[in-house]
TrEMBL record:
GO terms for cellular component: cytosol. GO terms for molecular function: DNA binding; DNA-binding transcription factor activity. It comes from Pseudomonas deceptionensis. Pfam families: Cupin_2, HTH_3. The keyword DNA-binding applies. Residues 1-27 are annotated as: Disordered. InterPro entries: Cro/C1-type_HTH, Cupin_2, Lambda_DNA-bd_dom_sf, RmlC-like_jellyroll, RmlC_Cupin_sf, TransReg_Diox_bact_type. Residues 37-91 form the HTH cro/C1-type domain. Keywords: DNA-binding. SMART domains: HTH_XRE (SM00530). This is Transcriptional regulator, contains XRE-family HTH domain.
Amino acid sequence: MNIPTGFLDSSGSIPFSLPERDHRDDDPMARRISQNLRRLRDKGQVSLDVLAHSSGVRRALIVQIEAGRSIPSIKVLCRIAGALKVSIAEFLTPVEPHGALLLPAQDGTLQVNAAGTVTRRALYPAQAEPLVGFYELRLGPQAEEHVPGHAHCVQKNLVVAQGRLALSIGEEHFVLHTGDSILFRADQPHTYRNLLDSEAVAYLAQPSWR
């Protein structure tokens, strides 16, 4: 491509990035990539700022892609996929139509801590885009889960379905029995701890990661 010399800096390089081509909101490919990008960010709880930093892709461009207004180049998509630790194919997977989405118990996305004592299961299909994420939290006897503070001022709602849990939020400490619930800000480190010698089960609701 011939580039007028007026657009080159003293080193002979282009002093700006050529923009991605804009697309109409009804472009099927743009919509598919957009929906899958939102799904994958939510699944990994990755904010826009973190994704931009880890991928090297401008935040503004990621916003455009996620809004369905731009289809990324292969190079950009590779960077985003690498940062999210998924394959490019994940962005091209057809998204299920809106409506009722059944999640069989064995199909939930499950996260397990290194010790194998704490599991967190998403209670919505991976392809869904809920406004609120809903999770099942299971802690083995005397098990603990330490959660770093979230970058955004996220509120969490926790209810204990079985057992007795201790919740520490900064300098505050609470004990929750079966049936107890608590709403708290999660922008600082917090810890869930099972106080009993039997499994504890709790349910956690929090806004989807945006």
